[in-house]
Amino acid sequence: MSFERGDISRIEYMQDVYYYAPAYFINHATPEGSRVLMIGAEASYDLQRDYVADVNWDSTEWRRLLVRNRSLEELDADLKSRGVTHVWVAYGLFTFVAEMGRENYPNVSGPIRASGPDYQAQLTNWSTLDTYSTRFLEAIYNDQFGNIVYRIR
Q: At 57, is the secondary structure helix, strand, or coil?
């Protein structure tokens, strides 16, 4: 109601929306020609840079990169050849999907199913991304929602 009454600005209001702050950061702290790979960050609203979207729970583009390239070095070169300069990761999605599982959607109160296919898929995504980020990325933004924006070195 504060926003509707005009007590706070749109920017102040949007700061509490999980996708807004990283998009704002990308728009204002990266060069205009930047291209962003989104992983787990499904909401590209307000993003004013070219991007490769993550369209579902499966981190599909990341998984395609893993299948298409035999090593993380090849994956890094692949991203660079496609003009990707930054990676926006919403790590909370991995946990969310592992906890929830598709069979219980939209029940978000279920326990983590460590033996289920959703957990195994997210573990693969998370572990390979963690290794890649350590070797090839530099974190330039991090927030309370689990969003990290990296610059490709």
A: coil
